[in-house]
Design a protein that fits this description.
By secondary structure, this protein is of the alpha+beta class. The strands form 2 sheets. Strands 2, 3, 5, 6 and 7 form a 5-stranded antiparallel sheet that branches. The protein has a 3-stranded mixed sheet with strand order 4-1-8, with no helix packed on it. The longest helix has 28 residues. The radius of gyration is 26 Å and the shape is globular.
Amino acid sequence: MTNMAGNAERRAWRLSGMGIVLCVSLLASTPAATRAGELQVEVKGLRNNDGLVRLALYDRPELFPISGKAFVISDVPIPYQGLSLLFSDLPPGEYALALFHDEDGDNVFDKGFLGLPLEGFGFSNDATVFFSAPSFSAAAVTVGEALTTITVHVRYWSQDSSKERREDGEP
């Protein structure tokens, strides 16, 4: 009798062990819970293809849009008066994008009198600007495990391009 009970107990442990192995195998074969996402950014409204566009993607509200504090920064030459850029391998979450058209290629967002922008700029969600950059929440987009596509329209507050300003002798 004792031997039969012992055999039944060993079989139960073996089956239980197989169940654990099966569960571990299934977990190992399924994709990770947090897969990387992608953000496709379409930039529209560039007034020329001079210089480059600097795109800064932020993942933390307290750092948006502080220069040099972005999660990812990309400087992209402009092949024509529009461009598209893919940010890949992003952890799913909330992001906000700020960009500027660096027409003179000096890696500086040029401002004029009273700090008004001399170069084009834009934010995700085409977030409204009123005397300062929009809030992170106004510009936030959700990136999941699938491709997310956004369009940003560049705004210019100055009528002259930086090339024209340089030709006129202005800085």
